[in-house]
Amino acid sequence: MAVNTPPSGMPTHRLHHDASSRELRSLVPETDIIEQADGFHLFLDMPGMDKHSLRIALDGNELTIVAHTRFDLDKAMRGGKTLAHMEFGGGEYRASFTISDDVDRERIKATVFNGVVDVYLPRSQRATTRIEILRG
Amino acid sequence: MVIDFSPFFAGHPRLEGLFDRRWPMAGNWPAQPVFPLLNISHDEAAIYVHCRLPGVALEEVELILAGDTLTIRGERKPVQGRYYRQERPCGPFQRVATIHAPIDQDNIKATLKDGILAIVLPKAAPAAPRTITIATP
To answer: Do A84 and B37 touch (CB under 8 A)?
Structure first.
């Protein structure tokens, strides 16, 4: 089962712009965590992302998903275009999750469809001990 | 310029602003009321609408230009399973943008790539100026 480490409920369209650096704006993708018969799925909305920049890394228990957007506003405004209305911008999508031992780390798989990253976390076959809860 | 589905679906920017000012720490409720998000830019040749539509297939989106309103609507179907967290909006959606320019309706182009729907609405050629002769009585 996956648990997110950064404070959740952070809306994606509120861009976190770090004025002190010229790094890309950091975007927190909206995420669904779903359990299905075969294991867990993380669905992350990352529209406009460049598939080649997608990095999924597992470091210990920490699963990190990073991707840059190819869609940047500068491009939309280049060539004499005027921006009339703006609700979203480009930047770097970044999300991290803590994975429990319930997940088979060797078989984690990710697929991308229409700007959504689907990370499949299969349940491990290890024997588990169920702790009985006694009525007080 | 952009009109939304309903007052509940759209969220009130002013009302939200008021809440943010009065209770800055109360910002943890679902802050994802508007879907899909739009960017609109224009130049002399066309109006460009970019729409953030992750996970929506081409056949699930409908684009309608009626008069000067452009409607983007469709449905985002939820995945079946046990949800431990749900932040991605799902269900039917609709957004309406008012286009204040005559559009060449035969050459509208729309592409959906990596969850971004890009619509190019070419402006119609302006009618050639006509000189009206004033008849002398």
So the answer is: no
Asked whether residue B98 is domain-assigned, the answer is: yes
User: What is the least distance, in Å, from the CA of A3 to any CA of chain B?
Assistant: 9
Q: What is the CATH number of the domain that holds B15?
A: 2.60.40.790
Q: Is A80 exposed, middle or buried (0-12, 13-18, 19+ CB in 10 A)?
A: exposed
Q: Which of A127-136, B66-75, B115-124 has the lowest mean pLDDT?
A: A127-136
The token pair that represents A21 in the structure block: 């650096």
pLDDT digits (tens, 9 = 90+) for B54-74: 999 988 999 999 988 999 999
- Structural domains present in chain A: 2-7+33-80+88-122 (2.60.40.790)
Domain assignment of residue B130, yes or no: no
- Asked if ipTM goes beyond 0.85, one says no
Q: Could you give the angle at the alpha carbon of A11 between the alpha carbons of A117 and A49, nearest 5°?
A: 35
Q: Is residue B137 part of a domain?
A: no
pLDDT at B99 over 80: yes
**Structural domains counted in chain B:** 1
Mutate which: A46, A77, A81, vs B, most B CBs within 10 A: A81
Tell me how far apart the alpha carbons of residues A41 and B83 are, in angstroms, rounded to a whole number: 10
Q: What is the pLDDT of residues A75-92, one digit of tens each?
A: 655 667 888 888 888 889
